[in-house]
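Protein modeling request. Please complete all fields; requests missing the sequence field cannot be processed.
Requester role: graduate student
Desired output: 3D structure, token encoding
Chains: 1
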Amino acid sequence: MAVDDTYFWNLKKIDPPPFVTLDYTQKEFNDIFQSTNFSVLFKNHLEKLRYLLEKGENYFLSEKQILEKLIFKNWNSLRKEKSLQYMKKLKRLLNDYVDLKFNNLIDSINIMSRSLENSQKIKPKISLPSREVFEYLLTRLYSIMKIFDHAIFIIRNKIYLYTIKNIKNGIFLSNNLLYLSNTARIYCLVKKYQVNTKFLYNNLRENICFIKSTGVKWNELFNIEEFPFVIKEEQTRSQNEILEKFMMDFENNTALSFSSNEIDVGEVIDRDAIEKKSNSTKIKKKKQPQSKKRNILFKKILLFVTSLDQIDEIKSKFKRFVKSKLKKLGSDYSNFLKDCLADKKVFIKMLNEQLNNVANMNLSKRSLVRKSIVQVIGKLIK
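Delivered output (382 residues):
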């Protein structure tokens, strides 16, 4: 199978070969590895990486925990911010790295190859892990480097750019400073792990062909010969120049400019411009509550009843009042009157309560007034 980078940094589980050691006589070991520095360099890089992983484990896990808390606390309100979205991707990569249990593998290989210590001294035999074990280690080293490379790319070329952009524009300063400081510390740890992993990979890849094999093919998926022979260290100066150029292109990018007509909520946006736009829109008049309209209607009815004696006068006066309201408010007042007659029993009951307060009004007149009002409303809203 050809080596595919995206396949490797997504690969969480590979079935390992049997962990066995094979013996070399002192003469046989010298004949094979004397022309190389494998015995010294491999053990040195292995010990250095094991020490680094052991000492940095607590720092790494604490920074990872801070990252998870920042995402958890801010995800609901800021989930459309690009910086937070890339931080979530970074969290997944760090979780993938933790799931690999890389520390345990390095410890196991270190114990199995302890006979490389002081290999220059004459020994009856030297024990080393089989070639299949080293191939498994090489595969895992390559997977780890792909995770580290992708994490460094996300921090340096994505999170950094978006947080700096937000800080320059004064958007969520405290949040973005926290994002920047946390991811910067993660970057330092991951970068240190990556450099030491590359040293170990390069040394092992160069000399793996000399190591004894059990002759049993442990995995059909990978062909070690297709793995890159050397992974070079990136040039810091050239990377900084590329980053500066990318930052300038990023700031000049029209897709992120605040003058854009279509605002992408997933990008950095000018919130002040949005507020001005929203404030400039006309404020819609609030609808008058139904209870308030009903109170006004009943007050007018009481006014007509108390000021006029004849039923016909009360009826015509009320009719003119309702017509003026319909002309002024239109369908809104018409809907209100329809709601009043929708539950006629309740409306009549409330009307009776109002008319009971009128002094010197007999029962027959009250009934006529009530019927006239209902009749006028019914005709006008048809």
